[in-house]
Specification:
Two copies of one chain form a homodimer. Chain A is α/β, with parallel strands linked by helices. The first copy, chain A, has one domain: Class I glutamine amidotransferase (GATase) domain (Rossmann fold), CATH 3.40.50. In chain A, 37% of the residues lie in helices and 18% in strands. In chain A, strands 5-2-1-6-7-11-10 form a seven-stranded mixed β-sheet, sandwiched between helices. In chain A, strands 3-4 form a two-stranded antiparallel ribbon. A two-stranded parallel ribbon of chain A has the order 8-9. The first copy, chain A, is globular. The mean pLDDT of chain A is 96. Chains A and B meet through α1, β4, α5, α6 and α7 of A and α1, β4, α5, α6 and α7 of B. β4 of chain A pairs antiparallel with β4 of chain B, so a sheet runs across the interface.
Amino acid sequence: MKIACLLYPNFTSADLINPITVWQFVPGVQFEFIAAEKGPVATDTGLSFNATHSFADASPTPDVVFVPGGAKPTFDALGDPALLDTIARLSQNAGWVTSVCTGSLLLGAAGLLNGYRAACHWYPREWLRKFGATPSDARVVVDRNRATGGGVTSGMDFALHMVGMWGGEASGRLIELMIEYAPEPPFGTGRPELADAATLSTARQFMAAEFSETVVDRAAQRLTASPRAATA
Amino acid sequence: MKIACLLYPNFTSADLINPITVWQFVPGVQFEFIAAEKGPVATDTGLSFNATHSFADASPTPDVVFVPGGAKPTFDALGDPALLDTIARLSQNAGWVTSVCTGSLLLGAAGLLNGYRAACHWYPREWLRKFGATPSDARVVVDRNRATGGGVTSGMDFALHMVGMWGGEASGRLIELMIEYAPEPPFGTGRPELADAATLSTARQFMAAEFSETVVDRAAQRLTASPRAATA
């Protein structure tokens, strides 16, 4: 099973690392870490990762395409035609087209979610409609061969869910035990409806400074103008 | 706040990424990613990360020392005197000495857990006693300035707990919401006492092939023979 993981500048590293931590236990799995150029790619925390493949030399027919999200960096990436074209191209023959967090906005901008239900980070979730998708507040959404996770930490639930679909529940149960996934969130504020008003208001301010509806509108206009290429 | 993150060949990337995903929101935080040499370090999934500092040029007085774990790679690292000496040296004046998963075995081998309670991955947890530590099955254990998390995915709970201690609960509530940490483990087998017998037996076989009590015994003998340097 070949999994194409797309990397772009300053993406949210946890969106990628949690899924591949789970998927590394899938028998025969092979990851390709794909960026504009092979070599170092900055991530959100300042730690840089090394892409193993450029857009040009990625295997053209992966079994799974996976796109991580980010805060402002993902909105910058919505204006990157080479990234969106690569996502669209690799997804053409892929068995699964997947994302975590705002990665679903990139799938949408690549023309891959029109008519599909999808998950996303809670803040920009409704903007998926601009790409013809139906947003869901579920932590993991599977609609035909599109599988999407919610905000950042949903990547663990998302990846385990996929393992259950790919290899059966016994695999999922085993991996959950090996990575000791019995979470105990200390504050219990991990969804807008669980958070107190002050926490929610501060989070919204932070997100408003990072996430841009205008950028999504522009990406949607380009997609409408040029639906096959997915970018202007 | 300067956080020294220790990297070594093939360590478990999620052990590092989840905590720094949380900690990047701490005002004024600075990470140093420290390995034997600056530059690429392989991780468990095949993705490589770039260390920003070598052991020699790491800042000598970090506020926090953080050590991630791993499966067999951590047991290999237990025989690496340069790594253990660096952990011991940087911890000497650190405000907090911390780890996730089997990282606590490395803290133990560096002489830093004698007389302390500590968490660890469930499989090798009891082996902490060889370093004078008292193992705990809690997901996060804080004993004076030692803070340790359980297996792999505990890193999220551990890091949020620390943020609550460092910056107050409001910070913790905010970060939990921003990273949408409302986990939904799909299988409910994340601890030995929650798993069915077949899952537990398969996991134990996997762990027995990766984790070596003999290696821990040898590290403990070296520590006893040379308690100050922490290594032979």
